[in-house]
User: What shape does this take?
Amino acid sequence: MELFKPMNNMDSNKSILKKELPVERVKVLIIGSGPAGYTAAIYASRANLNPVLYEGIQPGGQLTTTTEVDNFPGYPDGITGPAMMEDLKKQAARLGADIRFGIATSADLSSQPYKVTIDDEKIIETEALIIATGATAKYLGLESEEKYKGQGVSACATCDGFFYKGQNVAVVGGGDTAAEEATYLSGLCKKVYLIVRKPYLRASKAMQERVMKTPNIEVLFEHTTKEILGDINGVTGVLLENISKGELIKKDITGFFVAIGHQPNSDIFKPWIQTDEVGYIKTIPGTSKTNISGVFACGDVQDSHYRQAITAAGSGCMAAIDAERYIGERKF
Assistant: This one.
């Protein structure tokens, strides 16, 4: 049996030569398909910029993991996250956006036209680039956590806290985000358990004081989550381990909020685009402009503070308008 195929001169030459990828030139390229990306596509289409949008690994973004959305204007009866993203997608497509499935795997922003490689198979050259790749919530990695996502497990108290009015919930995390989410939920919920792995909070002194002074927040120091409990209707409790004592305790809850941070999806752009220490893309205040002329960022990839569908959509509008003005001034 032949284990290795002998390499002739032709094979050798092919292995040395870099594979030539097909190239397509567009006017505006949008990477990402959450509220920011789709809104950018809507506005860019209306401006006759013929935008091409690649949806990425999770078409619709983080909202596709959310069941009910009650705080987006225009939906008086509420709507599910996936349904709302489908509405935005249809609207962008109706106006002329070229929406495609594909993942941006590398980028070259060293010179115009900017180049983004899709699926390692095709290069898109673009006059203006809108980055709307979002951020990925960090989770604990438990099987039960994955099982109950959207059924009691959430990474956004502001988005989903309303559904747990008068109920008992838990927040995991010890930083400012966790403290803020616990405080927010305390105004809605009967009881909030703040699960902290360390014997102290990492949050700012002001946030620590606010948490400690809130009567319906109980801080469980030196506790870790072993399992999220539930049934066909969703979360019913959480099993915790007291690290110092080695004891297991169960708390009855209906909502479990993970607040251990987000990771912005900006890695392939970092060689050229300025980011903060976490990886959020820096934009010029009041605009979507980055440090590179003709490259714009919108949505959660540049927003570490609000992280809401409505603010993402607003920034997508800004990015499209900024791109339109940039192209108009350059007269490509």
In short: The CA atoms of residues 191 and 324 lie 49 Å apart. The longest helix spans residues 309-330. Helices lie at 9-16, 35-46, 81-94, 143-147, 157-160, 176-186, 205-212, 309-330.
